[in-house]
Amino acid sequence: MSDFMTNLTQVNDAINSFVWVKIGLFLLLGTGLVTTCITKCFQITHLRHWWKETIGSVFSKDTHQKLGKKSGSVSQFQALCTALAATIGTGNIAGVSAAICLGGPGAVFWMWIAAFLGMMTNYSENILGIYYRRKNSEGEWSGGAMYYLKDGLGSYKGCKKLGSFLAALFSVFAVLASFGIGNMGQINKITLNIKSAFFSNINATEIAGVSFVNWAIGFCLMLVGGFVIIGGLQRIAAFAEKVVPFMAVLYVFGALIVFFMHIGTVGAMFKAIFRFAFGIRAVAGGAAGVAISQVITQGCKRGVFSNEAGLGSSVMVHSNSNVKEPVKQGLWGIFEVFADTMIVCTMTAVVVLSSGAIDLETGLVREGTDDATLVATAFGNVFGQPGQWFIAIAVLLFAFTTVLGWSHYGSKAIEYLFGVKGAKVYRIIFVLMMISGAVMTSSLAWDISDTFNGLMMIPNLIGVLSLTPLVIRLTNNYVERRIKGKDVEPLLSYDQKIQAEYAPIVKAEQEAN
Fold this sequence. Notes:
The chain is about 70% helix and about 0% strand. It is built from 20 helices and four strands. The protein has helices at about 1-40, 40-45, 45-55, 75-85, 95-105, 105-130, 145-150, 160-200, 210-230, 235-260, 265-275, 290-305, 315-320, 325-355, 375-385, 385-420, 420-440, 440-465, 470-485, 495-510, and strands at about 135, 140, 205, 210. Strand 1 (about 135) and strand 2 form a beta hairpin.
């Protein structure tokens, strides 16, 4: 078993380095820059509009409108909550902590940069997902990168086979990623934090070299997860709608208390973030510095691990929204990245940098720091033992909802490859695999997740870049109609039947407003 794990680690490290360092970061940041430019910095120039249409409309009836199971859709708010359920996970707590410990305080700066650009990457993915979606054999919406690769990129002259190949490749990587980022990595962090907070003093019997506590936690998570996941998207969305807003607000509130308890160090914290954004030089005494490449890599990798902009993952649930306009759901994609990284991840960064575990003068990690439990320790320093319990519960809720969201992503990828029946089999396998994350080593689970993220990202971003002319057309069409109030025919779907059905409804809604 140990030889297998050693070989698996070596193979994964080689692929991870190639995908992220050689290709991924350039493609990720480049796509974000391109989509930001072609939409004329939409996230800034139309900030008031997208804010009003997303969080500003959270109490609007249309935002929560549910059309029933037979409609094959969920409400716009449910789609957002399910997407946030999949994105707000361990990346927001352990991921940010790991990024700062490995890349220094400057990694937070690059996390912000990746998120700022990622807003428009996520926006572009979502509008393409809505534009190319279709109903499956059970009447449920199906959309995602595989469809805009096959029908979008594939519609270009000489690209039909390339589009189909990349669509299949993306689907395979999405399934693998669902077991990595969406299952093993999340369950692993839940187990680690619960064990540290509640069972640290228990010497439990080992089974196959793993503590009985790990097995017990994994089994309990598997039972609860199975109940929700086997019920399909409607049950997942209903669960996410109730849990996600509660857990996000509660975590931010707790982090704000820690923030105000260390208000005196705020200036030094933010100074360190910008000061070390371009690397940490070695200090006197032979301490090792952190190269700029490592700072950027850690910031961007953990940023993507957290908000998933560029992966093409959240598209698969946004496409299930009852919305008729592609751009309208794209606006929720902008808010999704903003909420995940600019708010939740920033609060975690503040907690980590105020913990004393990071030397704000040198930017280096103090001896004895454990990035896996650093946030829990920081909360414990302020609130005592209840603070560590709070983080354990927060990780449980964050990570568990991520598992639920990713089970939907994986099932949609399997549906594309093998049909609706294949997706039902996948859900069962996904649930059974949950226990494996509880017994894996922490570092390997994270490294595998990083690799699958990168592999999934590449075909998706190729699709987004190839379809930038359509992104421009959809965005300009929306701006002309909804913002400038011009009488322009709405551009809603590649399918002429859907276009003909929805266009009169959208025009009537526009006239009513």
